[in-house]
Specification:
443 residues; alpha+beta; Phosphorylase Kinase, domain 1; Transferase(Phosphotransferase), domain 1; 2 domains; 6-stranded mixed β-sheet; two-stranded antiparallel sheet; protein serine/threonine kinase activity; ATP-binding; non-specific serine/threonine protein kinase; Ser/Thr_kinase_AS
């Protein structure tokens, strides 16, 4: 993601037109179009199509020339023409703008048979690259490289792209409810309920776990509330893969890279050394989880000096049973399970550890969050937290970090308990089922 010379830039731009022609020809020949129903998992449409684990392959495209050579990998992604994207956005009219960011402007559009024969009707989001500098092109290329091969219900689906002359555009599935950032921090919005917040946290965690568990891990590197988009059912999906990096291989412990990301979310060791690992994403997840719990921004200069950094202000309270509930978002109006809140706070505490090795794996985070979901159930039951989750994250509510014990020993343990209906709930919640939410049944 570093700076490039003009020689590389000219080579990249000169190869773009040929690459578009080639992939368009392949798209017409194969008549393969995207499924508008969202992320799917590893369906094989042609013999050349590879699974997500193939990102570990050394031939994964690193520049536009390699991208054109590997065009067959992306037959489920459409190469749109600039004219087609101008048509569906009414020439990029200002009233079609969904948002703006560092990459450029995002517009709403609608594709159907009138755009191209064979296309299914669905709304889309069209992201237009800001033409200034090569950095934007590299991010565009990174997004196409990763999302052109990755498919998962918690990743935003890449429908297509456009690369004509110096124009770079990306076409995604349209996410009806916009970003998590807007729902958490816009004053005009209705506060998200506890169960919705935990559902969003779980969905985002599943997206990260999927990336980290590829044969060659993918490090997202820019996990934050503005990059978590929500569909009509509040399903969380990760977007904006412009800073994503292929993770370390073999004996490598980290990837050395130029420090990029967002202040307030980046892991401290990455900021200090440029050493990037999957645990860097875990730290960022901890920040977002903290934002979900508190309703506060990661950095807020409008607050008193000691409260401007959310992590600095909140983390000391996260492992103190008496203080942790004091930081829960007051807009929740006590409508949550105390025990679920304690577990979520403890999870955030370990995700935010200064020592990367003390942070849990994202797969363990998923297993920890799953019992905290508010789901229909009408009877008392025994709920258990996955022991593999404890093995890595070493989560123990109100207790010390487990140490001096092997992973195998801890895998034999189960945390289980039965709680009476609504026991542990801070106050009755009319939205929970008669037996109390799952979160209320987790000890």
């Amino acid at each position: 993601m570093g700076n490039c010379g003009t020689r590389e830039e000219s080579a990249v731009v000169s190869g773009a037109h040929h690459q578009v022609q080639r992939i368009q020809a392949l798209s017409v020949a194969s008549r393969t179009f995207p499924n508008p129903g969202g992320g799917g998992g590893g369906d094989k449409r042609h013999g050349h199509c590879r699974s997500t684990s193939d990102l570990s392959d050394p031939c994964t495209p690193r520049n536009i020339q390699d991208f054109s050579k590997n065009a067959l990998l992306y037959t489920h992604v459409i190469a749109f023409t600039l004219f087609e994207l101008e048509t569906i956005t009414k020439s990029f009219r200002s009233d079609y703008i969904l948002g703006e960011g560092g990459f450029g402007t995002v517009y709403k559009g609608y594709i159907d048979e009138n755009v191209r024969v064979g296309l299914k009707s669905l709304p889309v989001a069209v992201k237009v690259l800001n033409k200034e500098g090569l950095q934007g092109h590299r991010e565009w290329l990174t997004e196409v490289n990763f999302l052109g091969q990755l498919r998962h219900p918690n990743l935003v689906k890449l429908i297509g792209y456009c690369c004509e002359d110096d124009h770079r555009l990306l076409v995604y599935e349209f996410m009806f409810r916009g970003s998590l950032e807007n729902h958490l921090f816009r004053k005009a919005t209705v506060p998200l309920s506890w169960s919705t917040r935990m559902m969003i946290a779980l969905g985002a965690a599943k997206g990260l776990a999927f990336l980290h568990n590829a044969e060659r891990p993918v490090i997202y590197r820019d996990f934050k509330t503005s990059n978590i988009l929500l569909d009509s059912d509040y399903t969380a999906k990760l977007s904006d893969f412009g800073l994503a990096k292929a993770g370390p291989q073999g004996d490598e412990t980290h990837v050395s890279t130029r420090v990029m990301g967002t202040y307030g979310y980046a892991a401290p060791e990455y900021v200090m050394t440029g050493h990037l690992t999957a645990r860097s994403d875990v730290y960022s997840f901890g920040v977002v989880l903290l934002e979900l719990l508190t309703g506060r921004k990661s950095v807020d200069k409008t607050r008193p000096s000691k409260e401007q950094s959310l992590v600095d202000w909140a983390r000391p309270k996260l492992n103190d049973k008496r203080k942790m509930l004091q930081i829960i978002d007051p807009r929740l109006e006590n409508q949550y399970s105390v025990r679920a809140a304690q577990k979520a706070c403890s999870l955030a505490y370990y995700c935010l550890s200064q020592n990367p090795k003390a942070r849990p794996l994202m797969s363990d985070v998923v297993e920890t969050l799953e019992p905290l979901q508010c789901s229909g159930g009408g009877t008392d039951e025994v709920s258990s937290l996955s022991s593999s989750s404890l093995a890595s994250s070493q989560i123990a509510i109100g207790g010390p970090i487990m140490s001096g014990r092997s992973r195998d020993d801890r895998l034999q343990q189960k945390i289980a308990g039965t709680i009476r209906p609504t026991a542990g709930c801070r106050s009755p919640n009319p939205n929970c089922p008669p037996g109390g939410p799952t979160a209320c049944r987790v000890r």
